[in-house]
Fold:
Amino acid sequence: MSRVRVLVGTRKGAFTLTADGARRNWTVSGPYFGGWEIFHLKASPVDPDRIYASQTSGWFGQIIQRSDDGGQTWTPVGNKFVYDGETGTHTWYDGTPHPWEFKRVWHLEPSLVDRDTVYAGVEDAALFRSTDAGATWHERPALRTHRTGPSWQPGAGGLGLHTILLDPTRDGRIYGAISAAGVFRTDDGGESWQVMNRGLKSNGIPNPDAEAGHCVHRIAMHRSRPEVLFMQKHWDVMRSDNAGESWEEISGDLPSDFGFPIDVHAHEPETIYVVPIKSDSEHYPPDGKLRVYRSRSGGHDWEPLTVGLPQENCYVNVLRDAMAVDTLDSCGVYFGTTGGQVYGSVDAGDHWAPIVRDLPPVLSVEVQTLAS
Amino acid sequence: MTITVVLPAHLRTLARVGGDIAIDVAVPVTPRAVIDAIESRYPMLAGTIRDHATQARRPLVRFYACERDLSHEPLDAPLPDAVADGREPFLIVGAMAGG
Structure:
């Protein structure tokens, strides 16, 4: 029988939530690294016992932790993230040039084929790679030094490379999404990058359809169709059917098209999930009702999923990396909130239940489907 | 010289030490020499006290000794004799911050 392990990063430590394939009875372990912000944890798809974690602190900077036994024990590995060559400048909040400064690792993306290779998306926005299981890190500088880089401006949360998608069918193709610059794609493993923002319209920037400068919150793909991408932008839910070459809006009948996470059903490439949030200044659900919205048609038509979720007086947020799916036959969907709840559904979102209610604010959720 | 260093709790956990650490430091005993010695013996602490790229003290880390705040002294300024000869500890402190 299969097992499920949910990796939860919070403002004050990491937690693992484990259950058998029925996903009814959960064991909560943690906190690991108590008191530190754990921006993201993710396991290697090649070796499920190998987990990488981004541990960070306003006092003591960045730590990367690695586990080789499924999260039971951890070892701090390399944390030297130094930009390659001239750092140059991006645009600061006041419009002036500002030098790139490493702040933290937002996202870790282990290789699909090598347990020792892992990518890190960092703030200020850049892509780093380790090929020795996190011992050393080297920037892939072509993204940061892209010709549009000097115009990139941080979003309210910073200038972070928050999403890294590895194309499982095309070696060297990687997507990166940056707040607030947009989507970029490389087809040569990071030697060169193209802007992939055609079709995005953002009314909060001077030129709504600028080449770069869009506040993309997250992108997602189904591994069986990596040329199809889904995006939750600051405002607007979007899709691309041509590997990011162009985008069309699919917000349809959502009550709000602002939000952070977006994810795809494990077995239905046209079934996608978002969590509408009222607005960019009101980071809570519309009407105080926590609703996941599901589209079974790849967008446009959405249905609220409410059973088991609070439908009154709920004012939490769900952050961009805080939703994930498992790959069991009946797809499980999971998300964490800034109120410290982690909710799970064992039937693709039809019914929900809290796995744990009172964690620190949840920053990230990842799921592993494991053989027993 | 062997000096005593008091680390903040989070760095003790990271370094897997239970209390104060005694560490051999090259002469002259300066904040830079102390940090060099700490990072050499506890590599997992590299980058946590000073920035990897700039080598500057992290803004929310403070250096105290002999009831003085030495945080803004030059990193190559000699520490007090009482620290250098081991009578007084060198304190690395996570600044009080918050509300």
